[in-house]
């Protein structure tokens, strides 16, 4: 055997040259076993008469060696090369006790030489990272450190980073480097660094990916410099002047904080009143001259004109007053002619009413159960007694069908009295698309929906009027004289879906009303308009903190009013009733009602609505359960969806009082005959 042969090898001859000892041209190197593949170890020595492998102190059997003989071309000495294979089973026998190693031993006539040890290890890479990067929101120019501790493995895993699935190369970006502990460091966050970052670990066995970490780099807003003070608002006496600044230095981005403080400053100012000059008394007549004339004079000195006052007598003022009066009369005649012409052409192009029509109330429409011969969801019972006295809706084609909901009575609008009321409105189809197209070309209205399903609009003058979105409980009342005389406004009212408008909520805040836009913003109103919309809160001062939010032109949502607290401005007022709120405002815009629970007793109204197919064409029957905020607009949207699906309402909608607790809302089906039906749900509840 090889062991016996190695034991009988003679010691080197005394005085032999050390150059005749074997030296290795190829030594075995460390290798890794991947899965179940055997690995090969090789060594080559010259001059050598025998070469054997020893693994973990034991000689490898001679039959496991593959030997090749040759001659070194340079020296002519004999060369010998030996290979062996190591399997996973051999390594696993001693795994955990010590490392598996192998070493070559070469013999010549002068003695023996040992090679370096080569270690054989089983390669692996575990699945789970010891530490993964986490999502963060950081301010611009702030440093970011994303930690990553790769899974345990042999050989140790190499780490690389991906930004939005593209490799991060620190050699190409001086703002980025990777620490020896594999953490990714961004020296100064930039807007371009907003991305999803993934840590990737790999070795010869596998490649692992960590969970992606979303990094958002935000910019807090900063004020621009103040503008110059405007001129004094009055030309005589005390007035005010203002200056403004904008939150554009920089503009808030990616959820950055809006600027704190006022964007407008006002200060009192005093302007010296102009003093018009007045004539002094005439002087005495002069002595009659050679041409038989004499003269007298007077001066504009009692008083002399000051502070821009006019010089001259009363006859000059009378002349100017007469000219102005003539001009005013001509303008009024022209306006009257235009109004008469417009009325002959069909009147104003929207819901315009005279002042008496504004007293029209929210007329109730009762909900009746559907009849047996009518498979519709809901049946309307219209109130024909008030059909000639109120006008509700927009210019859009009305989708009145079997689904019309009850509109609550409100004391803000008293019933109509006796009398005749005239309404002027135009054809809806073409003008609806034209109005939305005109709005979409203006920068502020580009976020409005392109359709007109949840929109009402109209043209209004000083008579005022009311816009309503059918079956939503949302309306906008413009009282008489709110629009200055001589002006005509195109006014719109829009209901937004929650997924269309980003309304940030923090802490225990929750949305209590639909998000409604009315506009155009920035128009001048001399009296408050009244925006009515539903809500789903069980209001209680000790359980809720309710705020009215308004979106600014920069897109930020601001608290403009806290119900029950002393108002910080007189521009807004909100009256909260059991199921509706009324916002009084002279500034149109986008509004929403947001509440923050103060205790676990705080609750909001949810409505549980069940729909199912009208027929059962197969052995399967699906029940669709909707858990909605208890407002008319949400229920309207669900009913419209179920109309398209052919669904049928199962029973009357139920109201749930959902409290702010740590428990989930659990839905389950009861009283299902087990002999007839079997639930396909994996759990007994959802």
From TrEMBL:
One of its GO terms (cellular component) is plasma membrane. It holds the Pfam family I-set. Its main location: membrane. This is Netrin receptor UNC5. It is a single-pass type I membrane protein. Residues 454-597 form the ZU5 domain. PANTHER family: NETRIN RECEPTOR UNC5 (PTHR12582), NETRIN RECEPTOR UNC5A (PTHR12582:SF4). One of its GO terms (molecular function) is netrin receptor activity. SMART domains: IG, IGc2, TSP1, ZU5. Receptor for netrin required for axon guidance. Mediates axon repulsion of neuronal growth cones in the developing nervous system upon ligand binding. The lineage of its organism: Eukaryota, Metazoa, Chordata, Craniata, Vertebrata. Coiled coil: none annotated. Keywords: Developmental protein, Disulfide bond, Glycoprotein, Immunoglobulin domain, Membrane, Receptor, Signal, Transmembrane, Transmembrane helix. It is found in: Cell membrane; Membrane. The keyword Disulfide bond applies. It comes from Phaetusa simplex. InterPro entries: Ig-like_dom (IPR007110), Ig-like_dom_sf (IPR036179), Ig-like_fold (IPR013783), Ig_I-set (IPR013098), Ig_sub (IPR003599), Ig_sub2 (IPR003598), TSP1_rpt (IPR000884), TSP1_rpt_sf (IPR036383). Residues 133-216 form the Ig-like domain. The chain crosses the membrane at residues 317-341.
């Amino acid at each position: 055997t090889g062991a016996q042969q190695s034991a009988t090898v003679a010691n080197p001859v005394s005085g032999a040259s050390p150059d005749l000892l074997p030296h290795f041209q190829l030594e075995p190197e460390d290798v890794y076993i991947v899965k179940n593949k055997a690995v090969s170890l090789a060594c080559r020595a010259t001059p050598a008469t025998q070469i054997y492998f020893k693994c973990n102190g034991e000689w490898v059997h001679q039959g496991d060696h593959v030997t090749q003989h040759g001659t070194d071309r340079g020296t002519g000495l004999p060369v010998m090369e030996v290979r062996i294979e190591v399997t996973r089973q051999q390594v696993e026998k001693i795994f955990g006790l010590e490392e598996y190693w192998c070493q070559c031993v070469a013999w010549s006539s002068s003695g023996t030489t040992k090679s370096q040890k080569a270690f054989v290890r089983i390669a692996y890479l575990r699945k789970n990272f010891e530490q993964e990067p986490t999502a963060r929101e950081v301010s611009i120019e702030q440093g970011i450190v994303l930690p990553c501790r790769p899974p345990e493995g042999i050989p140790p895993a190499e780490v690389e980073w991906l930004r939005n699935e593209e490799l991060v190369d620190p050699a190409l970006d001086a703002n980025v480097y990777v620490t020896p502990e594999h953490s990714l460091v961004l020296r100064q966050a930039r807007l371009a660094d907003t991305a999803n970052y993934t840590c990737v670990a790999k070795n010869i066995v596998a490649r692992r990916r960590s969970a992606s970490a979303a990094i958002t780099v935000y910019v807090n807003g900063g004020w621009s410099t103040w503008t110059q003070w405007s001129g004094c608002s009055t030309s005589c006496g005390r007035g005010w002047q203002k200056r403004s600044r904008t939150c554009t230095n920089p503009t808030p981005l990616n959820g950055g904080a809006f600027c704190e403080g006022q964007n407008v400053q006002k200060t009192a100012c005093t302007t010296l009143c102009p003093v018009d000059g007045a004539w002094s008394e005439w002087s005495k007549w002069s002595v009659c001259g050679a041409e038989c004339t004499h003269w007298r004079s007077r001066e504009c000195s009692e008083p002399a004109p000051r502070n821009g006052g006019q010089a001259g007598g009363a006859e000059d003022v009378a002349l100017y007053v007469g000219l102005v009066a003539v001009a005013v009369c001509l303008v009024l005649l022209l306006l009257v002619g235009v109004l008469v012409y417009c009325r002959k052409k069909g009147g104003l192009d929207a819901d315009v009413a005279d002042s008496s029509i504004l007293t029209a109330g929210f007329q109730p429409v009762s909900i009746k159960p559907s009849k047996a011969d009518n498979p519709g969801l809901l049946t309307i019972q219209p109130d024909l007694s008030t059909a000639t006295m109120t006008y509700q809706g927009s210019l859009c084609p009305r989708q009145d069908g079997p689904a019309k909901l009850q509109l609550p009575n409100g004391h803000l609008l008293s019933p109509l009295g006796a009398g005749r009321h005239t309404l002027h409105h135009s054809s809806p189809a073409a003008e609806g698309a034209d109005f939305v197209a005109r709005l979409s070309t203006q920068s502020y209205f580009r976020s409005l929906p392109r359709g007109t399903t949840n929109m009402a609009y109209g043209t209004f003058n000083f008579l005022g009027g009311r816009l309503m979105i059918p079956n939503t409980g949302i309306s906008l009342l413009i009282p008489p004289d709110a629009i200055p005389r001589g002006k005509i406004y195109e006014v719109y009212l829009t209901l937004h879906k929650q997924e269309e408008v980003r309304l940030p909520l923090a802490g225990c805040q929750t949305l209590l009303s639909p998000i409604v836009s009315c506009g155009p913003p920035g128009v001048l109103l001399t009296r408050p308009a009244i925006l009515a919309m539903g809500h789903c809160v069980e209001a209680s001062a000790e359980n809720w903190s309710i705020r009215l939010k308004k979106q600014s032109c920069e897109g930020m949502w601001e608290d403009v009013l806290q119900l029950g607290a002393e108002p910080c401005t007189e521009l807004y007022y909100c009256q909260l009733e059991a199921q509706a709120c009324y916002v009084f405002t002279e500034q149109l815009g986008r509004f929403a009602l947001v509440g923050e629970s103060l205790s676990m007793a705080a609750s909001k109204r949810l409505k549980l609505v069940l729909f199912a197919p009208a027929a059962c064409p197969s052995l399967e029957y699906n029940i669709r359960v909707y858990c909605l905020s208890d407002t008319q607009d949400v229920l309207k949207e669900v009913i419209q969806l179920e109309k398209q699906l052919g669904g049928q309402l199962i029973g009357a909608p139920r109201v749930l009082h959902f409290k702010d607790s740590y428990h989930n809302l659990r839905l389950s089906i009861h009283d299902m005959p087990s002999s007839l039906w079997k639930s396909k749900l994996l759990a007994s509840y959802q």
